[in-house]
Amino acid sequence: MFDHCLYFNTVSLARQLERAWTEAFKPFDLTPSQAFTLRAVLRKPGMLLSELAETMKIARATATRAVDGLEARGLLQRRPSDRDRRESEVHPTGAALDLRDDLEAASAAMTTRFKGELGAERFRTFVDELKSIGTSLP
Description:
9% strand
């Protein structure tokens, strides 16, 4: 019935991926969106909220809520920015730095798993196509 429906098929895939990534980040008591937000800040400490939103491909308000939640858990902190006084920089705390290697290992394990299940070339091609389609749509 929905064989050619982009919405149905991408949402179905997203639900499957959400379950898998939820399981991967369960040991850290983080949702996938929290873990990816934290990983982004760990890779670029001091990024502005607008940069985080752009990196994560989410609205700035969504990025602000994500940082609020991770800040409440003691994993991120905001600091005034010298680059743009209207924005805050987002920095990882010591507790976040302690999680970095384990978060990266969990993510690498998931990527390895998916490459094994799909085949490395199919995986790479699919991710590249998703990124391309994402930039083509409004």
